[in-house]
From TrEMBL:
Class of the enzyme per the UniProt entry, highest EC level: transferase
A Pfam family annotated for this UniProt entry: Prenyltransf
InterPro entries: UPP_synth-like, UPP_synth-like_CS, UPP_synth-like_sf
This protein's name: Isoprenyl transferase
Matching Gene3D superfamilies: Decaprenyl diphosphate synthase-like (3.40.1180.10)
CDD domains from the UniProt entry: Cis_IPPS
Keyword Metal-binding part of the UniProt annotation: yes
Active-site residues per Swiss-Prot or TrEMBL entry: D18, N66
Positions bound to substrate: 19-23, 31, 35, 63-65, 67, 69, 186, 192-194
């Protein structure tokens, strides 16, 4: 399997898992069937990322905008998250996976909140890949919450506005302590960020895969990793050969 892996492995991969509904529609199945098939790909993606030596895998499981979906679909998605944590937590723990959760904890059902806390607490000391579950997550909401925290610190006199830097902001958003994603993958052919990791993805490479999330298998994941390996990241600087010639 090593030969499938690019030399330049991203430390942090973030995925927008899109296309479950279309996958189900194409088969004449209810949308929930697509989400259920999507959960199986979540398990496979964690394993594939860990084998490829990716250190952080962030998955967009439920956005703060997803509450606008039909009541039944929201309830099915909640059920699937419960199912995933109940079924897979022990195995994730055994495989040394550390689970982290980003997103707003307010307005989520108490039992789900408790499951998320349990997943984080139980795996806190694990040293393998970090699986970051973005749940009830929206990047603008995350920034608003961070700004409020910083404003409170200023108001109470604990922080001088002049001392606020990018590091201050990075330390108040949900991903504090987690490196920025190097690679953002979105499945289903859509080419949007949809309010996902707006701050963190400033220098990420984007790979848009045409396949629907329930079809995103090991081979598709490696295809995205290989595409990343071919990219030339400059972070706003000049390409190395040009530097050598020009200045
Ligand atoms: C987008 O497909 C997918 C989602 C809104 C939910 C993703 C959730 C899962 C894969 C399952 C739960 C996750 C975990 C981590 C256990 P869509 O429904 O928008 O598809 P469409 O654009 O084809 O309608």
């Amino acid at each position: 399997m090593r030969s499938e892996t690019p030399i330049n492995v991203p430390q942090h991969v973030a995925i927008i898992m899109d296309g479950n509904g279309r996958w189900a529609n194409a088969r004449g199945l209810p949308r929930t069937a697509g989400h259920r098939a999507g959960v199986e790909r979540v398990r496979e993606a964690v394993r594939t990322a860990a084998e490829a030596d990716v250190k952080y895998l962030t998955l967009f499981a439920f956005s703060s905008e997803n509450w606008n979906r039909p009541k039944q679909e929201v309830s099915d998605l909640m059920g699937l998250l419960r199912f995933f944590i109940r079924r897979d937590l022990a195995e994730l723990h055994r495989e040394n996976v550390r689970v982290r959760v980003i997103g707003c904890r307010q307005s989520i059902q108490p039992d789900i909140k408790a499951l998320l806390v349990e997943a984080e607490e139980r795996t806190r000391e694990n040293t393998g890949i970090s699986l970051v579950i973005a749940f009830n997550y929206g990047a603008r909401d995350e920034m608003v919450r961070a700004v409020r925290e910083i404003a409170e610190a200023v108001k109470s006199g604990d922080m001088d506005p002049a001392s606020i830097t990018e590091t201050t902001v990075a330390g108040h958003i949900d991903t504090a302590g987690i490196p920025d994603p190097d690679l953002v993958i979105r499945t289903s052919g859509e080419q949007r960020l949809s309010n996902f990791l707006l701050w963190q993805a400033a220098y990420a490479e984007f790979v848009f895969m045409p396949c629907l999330w329930p079809d995103f298998d090991r081979a598709a994941f490696h295809e995205a990793l290989n595409e990343f390996g071919r990219r030339d990241r400059r972070y706003g600087a000049v390409a190395a050969p040009e530097l050598a010639v020009g200045s």
